[in-house]
Write a structure and sequence with these properties.
- By secondary structure, this protein is mostly helical.
- The chain has a single domain, classed as 434 Repressor (Amino-terminal Domain), CATH 1.10.260.40.
- Helices cover 60% and strands 0% of the residues.
- It contains five helices and no strands.
- α3 (53-60) packs across α4 and α3 packs across α5.
- The chain is elongated and about 55 Å long.
- Pfam families: HTH_3 (PF01381).
- GO terms for molecular function: DNA binding; DNA-binding transcription factor activity.
- InterPro entries: Cro/C1-type_HTH, Lambda_DNA-bd_dom_sf, TransReg_Diox_bact_type.
Amino acid sequence: MEKNKNLKSLDQFIDDKIGKRGTETREEFESEYDAFKLGILIQKAREEKGLTQEQLAELAGTNKSYISRLERNLKDIRFSTLQRIINEGLGAHLEISIRL
């Protein structure tokens, strides 16, 4: 099988289109992508539990619009609120890791 020399890895593609790691544009992209992933994870967990946004909000002591904004890429979220949504609202546990 012949290799296509024009194929790029995802990292190479992002480097070319967004910028290399460490640049302001790339850092902003990475930050926004992390917020997007968090919103998707919350939404998926909520749906797996069979909860509406309103039900999750009530369990977590917040409001539906906050859950909606979180699932749609809310950039600033208090850690204590995130913990409440995950622990009390979803009945789940938050795991955090740091990659260097």
